[in-house]
Design a protein that fits this description.
The chain is an alpha/beta fold. 49% of the residues lie in helices and 15% in strands.
Length: 246
């Protein structure tokens, strides 16, 4: 198992890619701390993992709440004595064209998708640097690479995540902490389930593989990057889109 004995904190873990990542990490031997602001859902997923004999904790907090993040780090350290992996997966959308986007829509997305990544990483990096090892994985998006109609706020947040990833790789790499970003394409999560079939068909035709990705396919990339198989990868931004940009 690639992650045996590791302790992984995963934000936005109650559903979608975060949930798939928590399950994949647990199957690879990691002790997982599932974090989400949906209290009932995150506790349910953690309990489901424990029922299969895997080690998991559920913790409810919002990535914009710095005191909640500090409590999470303390709880994890008290329970496990270490944090080996942080997956900054939590994110939201609030789409609108530039002319119609409200200041609140812009601020809400930046606060969660960009500042939330900063908040969590700043807290967890301290314990990783103290141990001289760790892996931080940030969720960006193909939208952060190429932009997307109606997503000024989301594109800005995900482009910013790439910039932070490269900066932290420079700062933390010499201290034993690797930092990388993953840029998923169109993935079958709750966000896509609300879209009309005509729009989904457009997503499929835009991808050379002719289909939408699954959360498990993104989770497998996170598992690789968290493992020793990726020990020489630092500051990378990996597009996982089925060839969308080709």
């Amino acid at each position: 198992m690639k992650l045996e004995g590791r302790v992984a904190v995963i934000t936005g873990a109650a559903a979608g890619i975060g949930r798939a990542t928590a399950y994949r990490f647990a199957r690879e031997g990691a002790c997982v701390v599932l974090c989400d602001r949906n209290i009932a859902a995150v506790e349910q997923e953690a309990a489901a993992l424990r029922e299969t004999g895997l080690e998991a904790l559920g913790y409810a907090f919002d990535v914009v709440d710095r005191s909640g993040i500090a409590d999470l780090v303390q709880l994890t350290m008290d329970r496990f004595g270490r944090i080996d992996v942080l997956v900054n997966n939590a994110g939201i959308t609030a789409d609108a064209r530039l002319a119609r986007m409200s200041e609140k829509q812009f601020d809400d997305v930046i606060d969660v998708n960009l500042k939330g990544v900063f908040n969590c990483t700043q807290a967890v990096a301290k314990v990783m640097v103290a141990r001289g090892s760790g892996v931080i994985l940030n969720a960006s998006s193909v939208v952060g690479l190429y932009g997307n109609y109606g997503q000024t706020n989301y594109a800005a947040s995900k482009f910013g995540v790439i910039g932070m990833t490269k900066t932290w790789a420079r700062e933390l790499g010499p201290k034993g902490v690797r930092v990388n970003a993953v840029c998923p394409g169109f993935v079958a999560t709750g966000i896509l389930s609300t879209m009309p079939e005509k729009v989904l068909d457009g997503f499929r035709s835009a991808c050379w593989q002719g289909r939408i990705g699954s959360p498990d396919e993104i989770a497998s990339v996170y598992a690789f990057l968290a493992s020793d198989d990726a020990s020489y990868i630092n500051g990378a931004v990996l597009e996982v889109s089925g060839g969308l940009s080709i």
